[in-house]
């Protein structure tokens, strides 16, 4: 009771504030997304993601070494596939000498201790920009799963430590886990995008990989038949539980900031590590507002990342990872 209790006593200086702070950000919190392209000498900025780049394989080692030197020890790989290699069933995804497979080896050669996670979904390889095979205006579930499992196996063969299925097909974790076990990849992990919402925050990412759903007649123009309805909470717990039963080692909530209630729900309901993906649209919003001088970039970045961890994230996939680690020194 006041004045015996004055809450401001614990806020009087930075020394006492840091002593009682509940949530502290460290380099260990982050998973760094990396975009890879074919070619040579390419480090191209993504227009809707200022200060974020696509790298060709020759420039990837330098970037990975820079991350390692900053204490960032995990990367999540995405590839931008040439249009000529895209088809409905993502054939190129299984090419043992494909861009993803070479990117995995490139990172492992550059920094063998770096944890390599890979995106598993058909969209960068699909001429329709969908995460699964399209037939009769639908995204086919079970046939897609068979390809996702083969794709995961191919990444494991190339040296991936974890595969990260981001497609939201039903039962894909079971298919992937079963094939990895059958083929002897017992320690290859699965980080499942379990609660992935059909979100408009993915726009800049789809620019980065040229992977937006095609605007064609008879083809769904959005991903609402497989990604979750953003109005739903309970479904996120169900999705996470099912993925864990099927063999997921880590579950994910995506996007981040607008979904922290979901992160907290899942944190309370389940006991595997939770990753949160602070997605491209979240990054773009802050970059744009900061460029206009309307928000303090570094202060808002730290506040947002801290909020994600405070909500219950063990792992944060973020395009800000490098910036924030530099900021924290
Ligand atoms: C592809 C995938 C997407 C993202 C990660 N993996 C886009 C999508 O589902 O359309 C989004 C990441 C971001 O926006 O930063 N399956």
Small molecules (ligands, ions, cofactors) in the structure: ligand PBG
What's the shape? globular
Strand order of the largest sheet: 1-4-5-8-9-10-11-12
**Helix- and strand-based class?**
alpha/beta
- Kindly state the mean pLDDT as a whole number? 97
β-strand amount? 15-25%
- What is the ordering of alpha helices and beta strands? HEEEHEHEEEHEHEHHEHEHHEH
Overall number of strands: 12
Number of helices: 11
Task: Give an overview in words.
This protein is an alpha/beta fold and about 325 residues long. The protein has helices spanning about 15-20, 60-70, 100-110, 140-160, 170-180, 205-210, 235-245, 260-270, 280-290, 295-310, 320-329, and strands at about 30-35, 45, 50-55, 75-80, 115-120, 135, 140, 160-165, 190-195, 250-255, 275-280, 315-320. The protein has 11 helices and 12 strands. The model has no long low-confidence stretch (mean pLDDT about 95). It is globular, with a radius of gyration of 20 Å. α2 (about 60-70) packs across α3 (about 100-110). The strands form 2 sheets. The chain has an 8-stranded parallel beta barrel, surrounded by 8 helices. Strands 6-7 form a two-stranded antiparallel sheet. The chain binds ligand PBG. Ligand PBG binds near residues 121, 205 and 223. Ligand PBG binds near residues 166, 202 and 279.
Question: Characteristics of this structure?
Answer:
single chain, 329 residues, alpha/beta, eight-stranded parallel barrel, two-stranded antiparallel sheet, 37% helix, globular, binds ligand PBG
């Amino acid at each position: 009771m006041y004045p015996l209790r004055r809450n401001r006593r614990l806020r009087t200086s930075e020394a006492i504030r840091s002593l009682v702070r509940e949530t502290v950000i460290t380099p260990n919190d982050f998973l760094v997304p990396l975009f890879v392209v074919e070619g040579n000498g390419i480090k191209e900025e993504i227009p809707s993601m200022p200060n974020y780049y696509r790298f060709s394989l020759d420039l990837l080692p330098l970037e990975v070494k820079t991350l390692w030197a900053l204490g960032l020890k995990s990367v999540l790989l995405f590839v931008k596939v040439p249009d000529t290699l895209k088809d409905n069933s993502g054939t190129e995804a299984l090419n043992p000498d494909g861009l993803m497979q070479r990117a995995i080896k490139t990172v492992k050669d550059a920094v063998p201790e770096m944890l390599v996670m890979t995106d598993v979904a058909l969209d960068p390889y699909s001429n329709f920009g969908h995460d699964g095979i399209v037939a009769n205006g639908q995204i086919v579930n079970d046939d897609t799963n068979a390809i996702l499992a083969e794709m995961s196996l191919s990444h494991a063969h190339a040296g991936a430590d974890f595969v990260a299925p981001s497609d939201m097909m039903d039962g894909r974790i079971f298919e992937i886990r079963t094939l990895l076990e059958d083929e002897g990849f017992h320690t290859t992990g699965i980080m499942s995008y379990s609660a992935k919402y059909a979100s408009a925050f993915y726009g800049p990412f789809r620019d980065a990989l040229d992977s937006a759903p095609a605007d064609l007649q008879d083809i769904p123009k959005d991903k609402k038949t497989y990604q979750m309805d953003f109005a739903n909470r309970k479904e996120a717990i169900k999705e996470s539980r099912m993925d864990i039963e099927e063999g997921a080692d880590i579950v994910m909530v995506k996007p981040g900031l607008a979904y922290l209630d979901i992160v907290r729900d899942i944190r309370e309901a389940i006991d595997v590590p939770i990753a949160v993906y602070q997605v491209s649209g979240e990054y773009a919003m802050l970059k744009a507002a900061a460029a206009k001088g309307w928000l303090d970039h570094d202060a808002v970045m730290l506040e947002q990342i801290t909020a994600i961890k405070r909500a219950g994230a063990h792992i944060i996939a973020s395009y800000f990872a490098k910036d924030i680690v530099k900021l924290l020194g």
